[in-house]
Design goal:
The protein is mainly beta and 199 residues long. It has no helices and 12 strands. It folds into 2 domains: 65 residues, 3 Solenoid (Pectate Lyase C-like); 96 residues, Pectate Lyase C-like (3 Solenoid), CATH 2.160.20. InterPro entries: 5peptide_repeat (IPR001646), PA_immunity-related (IPR052949).
Length: 199
């Protein structure tokens, strides 16, 4: 385990440290990079991560109690089972609060969060909950969204190129100007009172 003796860290890189099942409280990180670190089941309480990048980290089942994430990027990380609603989010969210690239974020909760312009690219996001979230202009490109929940979700201008497994009811979500690709886009028709026939 790495002991953080300072309250704030700027432009630092942390490699291979262990924080699994530990508690980190009231530490602020600005433009820091975490590589191959194990945060699994750690409790991050009232911490701040601004402009930080997490690479190949295990963050499964972390607790993000009252912690802030702004322009935080996750690359090739395991971030399963995280309740992101427990974090401290601004009332007026900026763009790109969170970015996930080639991550596993299954069984995570984003209910009601304002995260416009975020990215979930080439991820495994099975059984994630995006209900009532504001995700305008968010990219889900290449992501497996099997069994994930969308309801009263703002998805205007969102990008679902190469995404698979999604079940989005157009009458219960805002999808104007969102981008979809065939054949997956045909799933948008399943909730309509129509018959789909094959030639």
């Amino acid at each position: 385990m790495t002991v953080f003796t300072e309250d704030e860290y700027y432009d630092e890189t942390f490699n291979d440290f262990q924080l699994a099942n530990e508690e980190l409280s009231s530490v602020r990180f600005y433009d820091c990079t975490f590589r191959n670190c194990d945060f699994s089941e750690a409790a991050l309480k009232a911490c701040k991560f601004s402009g930080c990048t997490f690479e190949s980290c295990n963050m499964n089942f972390i607790k993000v109690l009252d912690s802030e994430f702004a322009d935080a990027s996750f690359v090739k990380c395991k971030v399963v089972g995280v309740n992101w609603t427990e974090a401290d989010w601004p009332r007026t969210a900026g763009r790109r609060m969170l970015s996930f690239d080639q991550c596993t974020i299954s069984h995570s909760t984003f209910i009601g969060l304002k995260l416009p312009g975020s990215a979930f690219v080439d991820c495994m996001a099975k059984n994630a909950d995006f209900r009532e979230a504001e995700l305008a202009d968010t990219s889900f490109a290449g992501t497996d969204l099997s069994e994930s929940l969308f309801g009263d979700t703002t998805l205007t201008g969102a990008d679902f190129s190469r995404a698979t497994g999604y079940a989005i009811n157009p009458t219960h979500n805002r999808i104007q100007k969102a981008k979809f690709m065939l054949p997956e886009a045909t799933s948008l028709l399943y909730n309509m009172d129509i018959q789909i026939v094959e030639d």
